[in-house]
Fold:
Amino acid sequence: MKIEHFLEKNEIREVTIFKQLVLNGGKISYTDMLDYLAVAKASLDKDLESISFRIQSLADQVHINYDGQYISLTMGDEFSLQHIYQLYLNQSVKVKLISFLFEHQEFSIIQLAQKLMISDSSLFRKIKELNSYLKEFGIKIRNGQLHGEELNIRYFYFQFYSYIEDKEALIASHSDKQITQMVQAVESFLHVTIEPESRQRLDVWMLISKNRVKHKEKKYSRLREQMQPYLEDTLYQKIRIMVLRYFSRYSIEVDEEEAMLHFAFLLAFPILNEHDFHEYTLERDRRAPIATIDTYIVETIIIHYKFRRLPYMLEREMFYHLSHIHTKLYFFQGDIEIYDYEEIIAKEKQFTGRNLVSFAHTLLEVSTSKFGIKNIEDNSLLKVGLMKYISLLAIVTFKMTNILQVGIDLKMETIYTETLDQLLILNMRHINGIHVEAYQSSKTYGLILTNQQPAQKAHYGEAKVYVLSEILSSFDMKNIQRIVQQLNG
Structure:
């Protein structure tokens, strides 16, 4: 599910205009915008007029200008595209519909249509559109209620209040002593320290859980099945005792499944810090599904890159991130894409190379196959999982890359060498795994860049020597990159 799915077609175009302006340095020709949007001139003019009206209250923060040829954007230093999205989402009927459903658990068509000030037919259309997107979460709005597995419902609301609706407003309006005590109970029972950002995530989850706990018709059939390998898990047992004791204080009867919901959430999201999670991994059953696939993927990465062994802390970090990825794949369905998938993948390829992206696809195929997940097109959970695999592989690649020491030794007058040394260093910043500096005879280098062949072969010791044909030429840069890859390979 994409953020844009909460907006209307014309609103999506308007947001896209902002996005294209940001991607094009704040200025784009009118004809290029027309071509990109594939709309008629009248439609673009109408969109620009609508944008001007919508942002008029933010004139001191954001401004769009059209001079007859170019469309340009200016924004305040503390104002971003994210604020533009939020402006549109705050006015979205679909967002208001989901918020109402969360607050009241159910609605009648007449009641909600009046509340949203739209016709019954428009409301039916909005519900139908939302259901087409909610399908990937395994939930559906029917007869004025949200139907589906309880874990999927809470997970959707958690994503919704994390990325779509204002979570700060939710916390401010719903947080109370009961929520504070629940978060403190998590820290106390589990003997962990929850950091501020993670605490905010937990606050949102607990608010949603408090709202849903008294709902009568909750479904747990899939969750019960998934939890079978974890009923004796040490962390689950602690959570189970905590949940049953906590709710008994308030005379609220809860099923054991309530503890299962919290177990899945705490492992799927970075609530526990890396140290506390590591302490848990020392106790968890390594034959359970998530632990098994964590180990299998780590071993696959080690074999693929032909590493003899990984540094202890790097391996620990890998298990931490992989467990979040695999827990989400195991327990949850759907996701909200907060980043442009195609754009991120394209940038990742440019930054990390096609081979790394291809290997990430292989890892995703392995994990989804092990969990029996069908690779459905446009499955946001799998898209986000792939991006996380790519990021993890990038972390491993960077941390395991040997740093090649490169020395620049230009035989020219000092007035030139100081400037050209710096220019060479700047032009080589994009090459991973190297440290570049002006040559110092007291140091050892793996590669020397010079503009004159040394008189004696051993002048630079065992360093590889590359003689520049034309300083800063693309020909030399290409060759240097090839040599670096060879030396680091």
Observations:
- The first strand starts at residue 27 and ends at 29.
- Residues 286-400 form one domain.
- Residues 243 and 249 are 10 Å apart (CA to CA).
